[in-house]
TrEMBL record:
The name this protein goes by in its record: PID domain-containing protein
A cellular component annotation (GO) from this entry: cytoplasm
Pfam families xref list: PID
Superkingdom: Eukaryota
InterPro entries according to UniProt: PH-like_dom_sf, PTB/PI_dom
Domain PID: residue ranges: 1-105
Length: 112
């Protein structure tokens, strides 16, 4: 659904606030959400454009600082990703329930 810089690395409230801001941006732009291909591996999270396969986003697994399902939509997972000097919030909306994605991300973040 989108990504955004956030002031912290963790927290349900932080993610809900960022989600609200992303929804406002989407409504203001009046555009459909970009369709992407998500790949999760031991190396990290890769998000590619579904049509062009251009790499839109890459983040190593060890930088994931927070993962949580959206309480109002079973198809949405929040993640906070940290780097040396910034934190980024990402919302991922799946075609089906996001429980499998959440489980995979949690397992990988614990493993790495």
């Amino acid at each position: 659904m989108g990504k955004q810089a956030v002031p912290g690395a963790r927290g349900q409230r932080l993610c809900q606030d960022a989600m609200g801001r992303l929804k406002e941006v989407v409504r203001a732009c009046r555009q459909h959400k970009q369709r992407v291909q998500l790949a999760v591996s031991f190396l990290g999270i890769k998000i590619r454009d579904e049509n062009t396969w251009a790499l839109l986003f890459y983040h190593p697994v060890h930088r994931i600082s927070f993962i949580s399902p959206d309480t109002s939509n079973a198809r949405v997972v929040y993640t906070c990703l940290g780097s040396d000097n910034s934190n980024r919030y990402i919302t991922i909306k799946t075609k089906k329930a996001a429980a499998e994605l959440e489980t995979a991300l949690v397992a990988l973040s614990r493993w790495c």
